[in-house]
Design brief:
Amino acid/polyamine transporter I, 3 strands, mainly alpha, 569 residues
């Protein structure tokens, strides 16, 4: 057990906002809107809500309960927590994964955080005004260095280095101040400010109306319809009779009658165009929809990150973790659905239309760093709103970054018995090496994408599955829920005893099974023609040096943590 003085949260509000801050991040405002638009709006939300109830909340409550119990046993580092709550020494190695995840994510998350700071700074200085999409894309590519490795490392306002240094300084300043005086204090200010800025932007977006009268169908109503309609009517085209159909446009039948008539006329006389209605049921039968929704839940609630279990270890014995977990989850969902889902895509559709948006792309980075800068260019006082939006993203990213760093802090404090300042320096050196690796290997964002894929698709799901099984089967569901209810003013609904014990593990195992099938199909079915999953290809079929190095760094991190844990017993 560490001899270092144990820290605690100062207030219930502080821990709720800190945990909410760990979840409220770039995924809320960028990743979530793209997924909703891609998977049919209302259909995705049905899958998302079900995933929230059957996967997100059960894992969240389990992590809160196990983390607090580990803290009461005298530990804040995940290896020691898992070992102490199970009374099995070998379970400390599961805690190694719970450390690899937040540290590994921080390696590339800090880079994206720096992108947001770069855009906010350039908007504040009046440097960003794009005449066309090509200029917006060019600025982004130049900033992040997608052309070649090392090209982002220049110390000027249009490259990344100065922003990475600034973001690192801010992160580690607040981290060095500790749990209550640093992380909690920052979140108490940042989260209300984040809400205030988001509301300003939201009000401006929903009052955009029809920005260009020459394009009456490009308006906020169409954007909201595109986001939230429970079914889709799409226009598909193909190059010739032998090629597959591909998406061209989406029709809003109630508001877009002229466009509907135009496409119906063209489709009636051409074999290269068709109009297809995709029902809600058809959308819900798509396994990719459910996998996307479940994946977003992990990012939305920061479950399976190894963060909540560390944060919860600093709670007091009688702190209400049931209500706190529910409040933190609800706060995040409000930001994600009410804010993230109402800003990015509707604004983009209002200016560019559905066809134009589809042409640019719906990816996380496409929406945030290519589409929205063009929106702000065409919006009155766009530079002001551009600054506010990217400053909002930067604030959200900081709250998430601090949460990713705290598990590493607890590790160095528990296992090396370092004080806060020395632990901060150790974490700084460890994480900065990873950040520099990702920043240098910027070509096609290969290092960033590789780390993100293997952490989010393998490690996070595996950790979440293991945690639920530990809570429900090793600790025991009755004992686990009794621990969760200690000091609680409300109780977890009785149905969740069955959900946590049976349904949640089964759903998580299905997700892992799908991932294993993806590996199998790529290696054995598509290996000959180098198709299938590109991340599998990069490691096993046509090895890519940067991809191999990225996975290698992640494995070396695991070996370092595991060897330390083993040496310390």
């Amino acid at each position: 057990m560490s001899k270092i003085q144990k820290e605690k949260w100062n207030s219930k509000l502080g821990v709720i906002l800190a945990v909410s801050g760990s979840a409220v991040g770039l995924g809320n405002f960028l990743r979530f809107p793209g997924l909703v638009a891609e998977y049919g709006g209302g259909a995705f939300m049905i899958a998302y809500v079900i995933s929230f109830l059957l996967i997100g909340l059960p894992i969240c409550w389990a992590e809160w309960a196990m983390g607090r119990q580990g803290g009461l046993n005298g530990f804040n580092s995940s290896p020691s927590i898992f070992s102490s709550i199970t009374n099995r020494k070998h379970f400390k190695y599961l805690g190694v994964i719970a450390l690899m995840i937040p540290i590994g994510i921080y390696f590339y998350y800090l880079i994206i955080e720096s992108w947001c700071l770069a855009y906010a700074t350039n908007y504040l200085l009046g440097n960003l005004h794009f005449n066309n999409t090509g200029e917006a894309v060019s600025f982004f590519h130049n900033l992040v260095g997608v052309s070649e490795n090392g090209s982002a490392i220049n110390f000027d306002l249009e490259h990344l280095a100065i922003y990475v240094i600034t973001a690192l300084a801010i992160n580690f300043y607040f981290l060095s101040k500790g749990i209550s005086k640093g992380i909690e204090r920052f979140c108490l200010i940042a989260m209300p400010l984040l809400l205030f800025i988001a509301l300003i932007i939201l009000v401006r977006v929903i009052t955009l109306g029809t920005p260009d009268p020459a394009y009456p169908n490009n308006n906020i109503s169409s954007g909201l319809g595109y986001m939230w309609n429970p079914s889709k009517t799409v226009v598909e085209v193909r190059d010739n009779l032998e090629t597959p159909w591909k998406f061209f446009d989406q029709l809003l039948l109630n508001t877009d009658t002229q466009t509907v008539a135009k496409y119906e006329s063209e489709a009636s006389i051409s074999d290269l165009m068709q109009i297809r209605h995709i029902s809600l049921w058809e959308l819900l039968c798509d396994p990719k929809l459910w996998l996307a929704a479940a994946s977003q839940i992990f990012f939305s609630l920061s479950v399976g990150f190894g963060v909540i279990i560390t944060y919860a270890s600093y709670l007091k014995p009688k702190d209400d973790i049931v209500l706190s977990g529910l409040a933190a989850s609800s706060t995040n969902e409000f930001f994600e659905v009410a804010m993230g889902g109402m800003i990015s895509i509707p604004a983009a559709v209002a200016f560019f239309g559905i066809t134009g948006l589809a042409g640019i792309g719906l990816g996380t980075f496409d929406i945030g760093f290519k589409v929205l800068p063009m929106v702000f260019t065409h919006m009155p006082s766009g530079e002001v709103f551009g600054f506010l939006f990217f400053f909002l993203l930067f604030l959200a990213a900081i709250t998430s970054s601090l949460s990713m760093l705290q598990p590493a802090m607890a590790f160095f404090e528990d296992h090396f018995e370092l004080n806060r300042n020395k632990a901060t320096m150790a974490v700084f050196l460890l994480t900065t090496l990873g950040v520099l690796f990702v920043m240098y290997n910027s070509a096609d964002l290969k290092a960033l994408d590789t780390l993100d894929y293997w952490i989010s698709n393998l490690l996070m799901v595996f950790l979440a599955t293991a945690q639920v099984i530990i809570f429900a089967w090793i600790i025991g569901i009755d004992k686990g829920l009794k621990s969760a209810h200690q000091g609680s003013k409300i109780q977890i609904p009785k149905i969740y005893a069955f959900v946590i014990k049976y349904i949640t593990p089964c759903l998580l195992i299905l997700i892992l099974g799908n991932w294993m099938w993806d590996i199998f199909s790529t290696l054995y079915k598509n290996g000959a023609n180098n198709s299938g999953n590109s991340y599998i290809n990069d490691l096993f079929i046509n090895p890519d040096p940067v991809a191999l190095q990225s996975v290698g760094i992640l494995l070396l991190l695991g070996v370092f943590i595991a060897s330390t844990v083993k040496a310390k017993g």
